[in-house]
Amino acid sequence: MKNILITGGAGFIGSHLVRLMVNKYPEYRIVNLDKLTYAGNLANLKDVENKPNYVFVKADICDFERIREIFSDYQIDGVIHLAAESHVDRSIRDPFSFAQTNVMGTLSLLQAAKLAWDGNFDDKLFYHVSTDEVYGSLQSDGGFFLETTKYDPHSPYSASKASSDHFVRAFHDTYGMPVKISNCSNNYGTYQFPEKLIPLFINNIRHNKPLPVYGKGENVRDWLFVEDHARAIDLIFHKGKVGDTYNIGGFNEWKNIDLIKVMIKVTDRLLGRPEGSSEKLITYVTDRAGHDLRYAIDSTKLHKELGWEPSLQFEEGIEKTVKWYLDNQDWLDNVTSGEYMNYYKEMYNQ
Ligand code: NAD
Ligand code: DAU
């Protein structure tokens, strides 16, 4: 049996990856390590929590001694590291916690892996799940991010992710640790915390609340269905080249305001309102500080070398996503009220 440590498995992307790995690889033990911050929610994993090859461990990646114990207790062979502070707006208000979790937490995991594996790296792997934001910002007509694009982060969030990528590469180059990194574009889908654009706006449309569009709504993001990201991570983890970086994205760019209008149309229709009637909720607000204009990923390497393709067209993905949030108002109410955090604090007695 292989023992795979997935960090941040109770979050948005992590929970999709844990579900995929637990169901697809009964021969692996999947150890989900998560601190359960405001963004972590074990309710995201109800369908796999009783599977024999699944274990949940509540821990902070910054707690180095605890992480060393976990490597030893579970004889970890491979790490897929997703735990992070992930929201750009929070990083602007509180950069320290981003440096702490994303930089120091990643370093703590790397050092714990190095000590546990003790120079014997046979069949070992440290895989860091990173973001396209490390590459900075593109002009509206200015090409794509390649794996070779120079790092140029602008927000405290992207600076912390860039730094953690550098530490991962440093452990490869200095100690010979087998590592892989992927840099993905914006994800959307089920179980995303409703501070991010898509779930926030669906929830606000439902409740007839204002839709705060930053600046003129002209920034461009490249959107990928979260389950396609999880499939790409699985493929890179198993088949990607050690020491390499892979860009992940579906060539699916949207100007924010155009995406918001599509979301409004779909949500209105599913709520039985006249399509487009919720456009009156659009409220232009002060722009995000240092707001990157455009992200666009070139994922040709992943297509050509590993044969990955996104499975869903955007129209189908957004319809599925809006429908899920409308059908799962309890989940949204729980995460916005913080009730699930009290529940799990009691459950784990802390
Ligand atoms: P998320 O905020 O939904 O989840 C983060 C998870 O990490 C939560 O479960 C949280 O409890 C956990 N966590 C936070 N601090 C921790 C700590 N100190 N110790 C242990 N666990 C901790 O994030 P997400 O959107 O699922 O992103 C996951 C990863 O993917 C991040 O590394 C992010 O940078 C990267 N990423 C995200 C996107 C995106 O569009 N969401 C795109 C590309 C890359
Ligand atoms: O590109 C990958 C990144 O995508 C990930 O690394 C991050 O973890 C993830 O949060 C996401 O970052 P963004 O900042 O692009 O996502 P967000 O959903 O916060 O914002 C998407 C766009 O919408 C961005 O241009 C800002 C804008 N926006 C966002 C919010 C929350 C608004 O106009 N209004 C809003 O209220």
SSE layout and pairing:
Blueprint: E1 2-7, H1 12-24, E2 28-34, E3 54-58, H2 64-73, E4 78-81, H3 88-93, H4 95-117, E5 125-131, H5 156-175, E6 179-184, E7 186-188, H6 197-206, E8 211-214, E9 220-225, H7 226-239, E10 245-248, E11 253-255, H8 256-271, E12 282-285, H9 300-306, H10 314-327, H11 329-337, H12 339-347
Parallel strand pairs: 1-2, 1-4, 2-3, 4-5, 5-6, 6-10, 7-9, 8-12
Antiparallel strand pairs: 9-11
Helix pairs in contact: 1-7, 2-4, 4-5, 6-8, 8-10
Bound molecules: nicotinamide-adenine-dinucleotide and 2'deoxy-thymidine-5'-diphospho-alpha-D-glucose.
Percentage of residues in helical conformation: 40-55%
Briefly, what CATH class?
Answer: Alpha Beta
Distance between the termini: 32 Å
Stretches with pLDDT under 50, minimum 5 residues: none
The CATH superfamily title? NAD(P)-binding Rossmann-like Domain
Q: What small molecules accompany the polymer chains?
A: nicotinamide-adenine-dinucleotide, 2'deoxy-thymidine-5'-diphospho-alpha-D-glucose
Give the helices and strands as they follow along the chain. Answer: EHEEHEHHEHEEHEEHEEHEHHHH
Give me the side-by-side strand order of the main sheet: 3-2-1-4-5-6-10
